Amino acid sequence: MKKLSVLTVLFVCCISIILLIDSQSKLGILNSIEMNKNNNQEINNSLQLKSKQTVEVKNAEQTEEKGIEEKIDASIPAIKKESFIIVIDPGHQAKADLEQEPIGPGAKEMKYKVTGGTSGVITKKPEYVLTLEAANFLKSHLEKRGFQVIMTRSTHDVNISNRERAEIANNYKADLFVRIHADGSESSKTSGFSILAPARENPYTLPIYEDSYQAAQLILANIGKEIPLHQNGIFFRSDMSGFNWSEVPVILPEIGFMTNPEDDRKLSDSSYLSNLMELMASGIEEYAVFKKHN
Length: 294
Description:
Largest sheet: 6 strands, mixed
Strand content: 15-25%
Oligomer: single chain
Distance between the termini: 125 Å
CATH class of the largest domain: Alpha Beta
Radius of gyration: 41 Å
Order of helices and strands: HEEEHEHEEHEHEHH
Helix content: 40-55%
Number of helices: 7
CATH architecture of the largest domain: 3-Layer(aba) Sandwich
């Protein structure tokens, strides 16, 4: 009987010990699992923090880059939008005015107020029609760049003398007066773009000679990248009332020879004409930058 009691006690103790060990093991496993969960959470938190920091750094870099871009963008209009005025004169008009006016202030020499111009050897287009088409393209390209543009005429049915056209530019205190024309020649082989500018020795235009020449050079450099030039591209004149009455820098682009079949066809191609005027606008823009810094 005593043996049975002892065995019973030992059996109970063994069972208790086994249950205790099993309980501790389960607790250990649970603790281990919980620790792993905590560790994983810490790793996830760390990764999320690093990801957030990376995003913040990228946002900061983007903000800085945006700030730099905004500063650059702001500097461009500062050059272009400071009331830089360009007066464009589409040469000629529907009906010539052969009355005469002085070639310059106080001059005794007289010239026709405005002639009829030439016409296309193939297209038969009058010069006054072509010059207004070109002027509208140039106006559009310049306005897109932020310039203020004034046109001496927007229709063909006008009567404005060369002196009066120059006086429009003077009244607006234009930074540049652009007189658009097309050329003509007795030889159908003569072709190319050129610019007429006031001559150095011309007493009427002495104050505006340097700026006019500078504008002509910059525009010609841009045009010459894509468009064939006539001879060296710049011709100086003292006999033009549209120059001599001008008190502001002035140039007269001869955009091609309408008496040359190839030039005539190209000048009536709107894509060609628009591109030509865009090249001219780029040259004018360079002149505006030059004037701002000189």
